[in-house]
Amino acid sequence: MGFLARERTVAPPGWNRWLVPPAALAIHLSIGQAYAWSVFKTPLEKSLGITGTQSALPFQLGIVMLGLSAAVLGTTVERKGPRWAMFTSLVCFCSGLLISAVGVWAGMYWVVVLGYGLVGGIGLGIGYISPVSTLIKWFPDRPGMATGIAIMGFGGGALIASPWSTSMLTAFGNTSTSGIGKAFLIHGIVYAIFMSVGVLLVRLPSEEFTKEKAELLKDRPKASVAFNVSANNAIKTPQFWLLWVVLCFNVTAGIGILEKAAPMLVDFFKESSTPVAATAATGFVALLSAANMAGRFVWSSTSDIVGRKNIYRLYLGVGALLYLVLLTLGPTSTPLFVVAAMVILSFYGGGFATIPAYLRDLFGTYQVGAIHGRLLTAWSVAGVLGPLIVNAIADAGKKAGHVGPDLYATSFYIMISLLVVGFVANELVRPVNPKFHEPKVADEAVVVAEPEAEAEETVTEKVADKAEDDNAEKVTAVVAEVEVAEEIAAEAAESEAAAEAAEIAAAEENTAEATVAKWNEAEAADVAETADENADEAEGVVQK
């Protein structure tokens, strides 16, 4: 498809790289609507007569499909390019909303589950990873900040979608299938228009920008990565699985609070002298969402300064201590509980935003989007594990007659243990063994080009790519050797030509000598003949 082709996405000379983050935000702010699914839960339960567990199915299936589609289609996204990926995300996500509208109008909830969860979930996964590797290529000097801007949009999408969806449901009727269907329909149309901005705006770095990359990195030598690892090789390394554990356990710890935030706050202070009202608990959820969004930008940008391993030491180490604070001091002070929970949620968001830059540091920019997609399976596991731990233990505690903080004590201790395990896994991360690095030939062309484009590359472009991948010295040496060989060949050719000329000259000289000899012989014969004639004439005279 011409317009969506990778080569049509390359930026023209002079393109401003700061236009790329808004393109990423247009996608992530839209698909971030998934975090506002809870707004539809109660209206769907009342209008279709389903249970709370059933009303959560579209969201749960959507998160599972997010991880699976990102893992399965990550390599395709890298090969096809960001514009194709963003357009595919637009089609799937918005189609999911439109299918959900039809399902609600028809009174068939399974259509809503398949539309929003299955089809829309594929759009979530492709859209989530689509701008990641592109932003890292545009911002080699600030990869953490760049990915933080985009992924911040996913965390902040609910802040826009939640009040917008609520107002639409109120206006159209939040207990009628007609009103809920209209809300889904408008969501699908508006998000399609908004995501189209990202599709039109996104660009890949040009050769001109690639040459300028060295200038961007001169003040940040540690930001440069001189090697690349493919997605298939990455999953064979211990580093990938250590980061999988780090992400999974950090997300589990955060989503455990996020999923049950409002009832948790109410339960914690139910038996205290300052109980928290349900309306105040709703405000607590909004604060956690804001902390989640802010952490994605602030902490990931900070990682560009302090390093990826150090920032995860903060997420995991301080996060474990904050859970301990919630257990020991949280019940004594509502503000302390709120602040500690907000910081934990900021670490939760920061962990999502920093992981692409961490992957880039370890595996290079080649197929980093595909590697990121495969790592997001950790999110799928954590999305089930976190709520399961908190809800199951709280339900068991209620049956046992426990109240207040006792309902969550065991689950908090489990979260602390998981964060400690994640901390240890982060400490074990080391540079990737060079045996997993892609050959330099692969770095030259395969890294940034499709196989079809590779076949069309000229020798000159390959040499340029080598220089781009820090092999300039080798290329210079090869060129020097070629020049020397050419000089030797030229000298040999000159010598051969000289020898041939000498042979020709000698042959010509011999020919000339033979000719002169023939001339002399002929002249001598003429002289002899003339002498004979003279002698005969003289003899005749004498006789007379």
TrEMBL record:
Residues 493-513 are annotated as: Disordered. Residues 1-434 form the Major facilitator superfamily (MFS) profile domain. The keyword Transmembrane applies. Keywords: Membrane, Transmembrane, Transmembrane helix. It is a multi-pass membrane protein. Signal peptide: none annotated. The chain crosses the membrane at residues 18-37, 57-77, 84-102, 108-132, 144-164, 184-204, 240-258, 278-299, 311-330, 336-359, 371-390, 410-429. It is found in: Cell membrane. The keyword Lyase does not apply. PROSITE patterns: MFS. This is MFS transporter.
